[in-house]
Amino acid sequence: MTLQGSNRRSFLRRGAASAGGGFAASAVEGLAVRAARAADGRKPRTAPGNGGYGPLRELTRTDADSGFAQTLRLPDGFDFAVCSVAGSPLADGSATPPAHGGMACFPTGRRGEWRLVRGHGVTGVPEVAAGEAKHRYDALAAGGTTTLAVSWKDGAFAFEGARRSLSGTLANRSGGATPWGSWLSCEEATAGTAAGWEAPHGYVFEVPSDAEAESEPLPLKEMGRFVHAAAAVDPRTGAVYLTEDQNSAGFYRFLPNVPGRLAEGGRLQMLKFADEWNADARSGRRASRAVHVEWVDVDDPDPAGAEANPYAVFDQGWAQGAAVFGRLQGCFSADGAVYAASVSGGDEGEGQLWEFRPRGLRGGTLTLVFESPDAALLPFPDAIAVSPAGRLVLCEGTGREAPVLRGLTRGGELLEVAGHDGTAVWSGAVFSPDGKVLFANLRGAARGDRAEPARTIAIWGPWDRGVL
Q1: Strand, coil or helix: 195
Q2: Which of 299, 332, 305, 302 is CA-nearest to residue 318?
Q3: pTM for the full model?
């Protein structure tokens, strides 16, 4: 990684300055309004005129490397490209892994040129010989990340190639971007040698976006060995917030010894309600009510029994009164707060969004800002992207016949950004730093007698014509 010393501190300061912009007052407000309407018995509302973008039309584009033809429904004036399809060649000649997942877009310092770092939720063995990846963490594991070079110049999008950036890891479905330009790739499994793997799994790995070669796979063991989901960095302090994708999940925080240098260690902690022992946040909670919380230390973040017991880290916090959540996945930092999505929480089990607002490093407040009362209203999305105008783009679609990429207005109204005629679910949505291109992944799915491979989609057009 090229960002060292004062450069890392500069990134943290600049990140803190740019983390505001009224995010909570605009993006999250739409979720709260939508939930309130449903609670009052009002039917779900769609944005008039599809939020200013009008009806969708069909377009078909073909990936040049794989020959895969993709049809999308987009508003008039919008276009797209499909690239980096699973199985297409990477820079080293090996195949692009399947199961495209979480993703972030990073500037390169050159106008209109960006790097996408993308996770792959692969749980099986690699399709290439172990020796073909120089820095594989586990020769038997096929997960990891790939880095894509993309650009937008003179009104034209270009995919310039992809390469391996982390290999030999397991179930890297999600993660999170850091203010200093790296991706935290999280393993969503604690399998290890007892299950036949060559190395223990369940860790976070850091992948610099500006590296030209594959990253050395260093497991950040002090960040915990558990069923990781996403990560988010508080740019003011460098603290890393971590979610856990289990039915009984903890909400964690890692305090690095040196902000921006995670490999130098730190303390792992778990959130606890200040006035409630082992609080159950999965149901019976009232929206908009702030609760004071504190943090308890996890004494052994890398317990020897984590493979046999994926709750080995959680149990340590639970023994000290920490709270339990339902399947925490997406996590992001904005407007001085950290937001964590529970995809199975709530009285109806349809999802919650929690806001943690820190007060120093000792405590803070936790608020339930959204709870979906009905799957028809809004099943909680797999991932959330924030538009240049501070609106939300939701990767909605689990369990649907034709998954849709949706926008959400400040008034709680939904609109359609993109649809397709397959069954692959959207994931990893993120806007380019200049807001001109929306990137998202289609994970891949079986469709009758024809498989839909995982692929990355780039969408562009007159965003300023509508509410996004």
Answers
A1: helix
A2: 299
A3: 0.92
Name which of 385, 251, 268, 252 is nearest 327 in CA terms: 251
Whole-number Å distance between alpha carbons of 458 and 441: 9
Q: Using alpha carbons only, what angle is made at residue 420 by residues 414 and 424, rounded to the nearest 5 degrees?
A: 100
Give 389's contacts (C-beta < 8 A, 6+ positions apart).
26, 463, 467, 468
Residue owning tokens 């159950």:
280
Note the pLDDT tens digit of each residue in 377-415: 666 666 778 887 878 888 865 555 667 898 888 888 889
Q: Report the range of poorest mean pLDDT among 170-184, 198-212, 368-382.
A: 368-382
What is each CA distance from 240 to 116, 222, 430, in whole angstroms? 21, 12, 20
**For the ranges 24-38, 75-89, 282-296, 331-345, which has the lowest average pLDDT?**
24-38
Residues facing 184 on adjacent strands? 176, 206
Residue 195 in tokens: 């299950």
DSSP string, 9-77: HHHHHHHHHHS-SSHHHHHHHHHHHHHHHHHTTPPP-B-GGGGGT-SEEEEEEE-TTT--EEEEEEETT
Sign of CA dihedral 179, 183, 188, 193: negative
What gap in Å lies between CA 420 and CA 57, rounded to an integer? 11
The structure tokens listed for 77 are 């004036």
Please calculate the CA angle 229-233-236 and round it to the nearest 5 degrees: 160
Q: Which of 236-240, 447-451, 458-462 has the lowest mean pLDDT?
A: 447-451
**CA-to-CA dists, residue 66 to 83, 384, 402, 425, 449, angstroms:** 9, 28, 23, 20, 19
Q: What share of the chain is helix, strand, coil (3-state, %, to 5)?
A: 10, 40, 45
Sheet holding 156-169, edge to edge: 100-107, 113-120, 143-153, 156-169
Q: Among 457, 419, 430, 398, which residue's Cα sits nearest to residue 174?
A: 430
Residue 310 carries which side chain, given as an amino acid letter?
P
Nearest to 217 by CA among 164, 173, 256: 164
